[in-house]
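User: I've been trying to design a sequence by hand for this structure and keep getting stuck. Would you show me what you'd pick, starting by listing the structure so we're on the same page?

Assistant: Good idea, let's start from the same input. This is the structure you sent:
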């Protein structure tokens, strides 16, 4: 034993020092991350032609809305999550299309996910089937939005689910956009509306039902397509900022000129993932700090 210690003494001491140093580093990086973090940061990831938004609160609560068209979301998450963090509290799938669900398959494989929220509509694709298979396999709690719901989390922050207001569970739709999960983040007097791929019919319903009012930031519906961001809707919600998630040079011509001019007409400052890269929005004591990273 003694001989063993003599031989390996140097290595053992180094191992101990390294271990203590690692512990110290982990502790300090956690403290550093918490003390410098804003109340809430919202990232609109540049995932190409698709959608993915990430909400990260100072207390560590993390919510991912959609995952984009491929595994790129993993590197986006890796850049903004602490390296020792291997869990995400909630995943919201707005609807079943591949440019929203595919990246979530990789996220479900890589991270421990606490809960999944979706619209539950029937949709027959390999990507959506795989997404559902992993949820079942890992026994992840799943909630289907079939009425307005509110999720309270960090320090008065609320994620309000505004749509669908009825059950689409198992129903096959001609256009699955009609069941898009629409949510609004309210924090410190600021409101961010996540439209998924909701189109004009949902925009109109939200207005007529009084579900939306004046907001600060709009994640424009359907990648800035002319199917969405109707001027009637925009005149009610009057966002100061609009974020459009679209791929550079995408074949759909997103965002449309119509949407860009509708947004310009109400004076919204427009950010685009295809031009600006990932857009980061921090809310701290009710103030916004916006930054972009290509
Ligand atoms: Zn879609």
């Amino acid at each position: 034993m003694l001989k063993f210690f003599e031989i390996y003494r140097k290595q053992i001491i180094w191992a101990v020092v390294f271990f203590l140093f690692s512990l110290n580093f982990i502790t300090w990086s956690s403290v550093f991350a918490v003390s410098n973090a804003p109340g809430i940061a919202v990232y609109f990831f540049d995932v190409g032609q698709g959608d993915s938004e990430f909400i990260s609160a100072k207390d560590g609560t993390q919510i991912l809305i959609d995952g984009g068209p491929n595994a790129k979301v993993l590197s986006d998450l890796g850049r903004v999550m602490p390296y020792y963090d291997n869990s995400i509290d909630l995943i919201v799938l707005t609807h079943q299309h591949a440019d929203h669900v595919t990246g979530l398959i990789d996220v479900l494989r890589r991270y421990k996910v606490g809960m999944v929220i979706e619209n539950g509509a029937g949709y027959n694709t390999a990507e959506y089937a795989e997404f559902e298979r992993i949820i079942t396999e890992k026994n992840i709690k799943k909630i289907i939005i079939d009425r307005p719901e509110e999720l309270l989390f960090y320090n008065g922050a609320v994620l309000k689910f505004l749509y669908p207001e009825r059950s689409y569970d198992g129903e096959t739709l001609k256009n699955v956009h009609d069941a898009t999960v629409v949510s609004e983040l309210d924090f410190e007097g600021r409101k961010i509306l996540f439209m998924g791929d909701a189109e004009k019919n949902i925009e109109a319903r939200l207005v007529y039902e009084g579900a939306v009012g004046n907001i600060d930031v709009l994640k424009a519906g359907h990648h800035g397509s002319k199917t969405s961001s109707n001027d009637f809707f925009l005149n009610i919600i009057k966002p100061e900022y609009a974020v459009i998630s679209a791929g550079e040079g995408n074949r759909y011509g997103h965002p449309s000129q119509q949407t860009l001019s509708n947004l310009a007409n109400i004076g919204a400052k427009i950010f685009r993932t295809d031009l600006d890269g990932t857009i980061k929005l921090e809310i701290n004591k009710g103030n916004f700090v916006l930054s972009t990273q290509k």
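That's my pick for every position. To get oriented when you compare it with your attempt: The pocket of zinc ion is lined by residues 95, 97, 177, 197 (CB under 6 Å). Residues 2-26+37-293 form a domain with the Metallo-beta-lactamase; Chain A fold (CATH 3.60.15.10).
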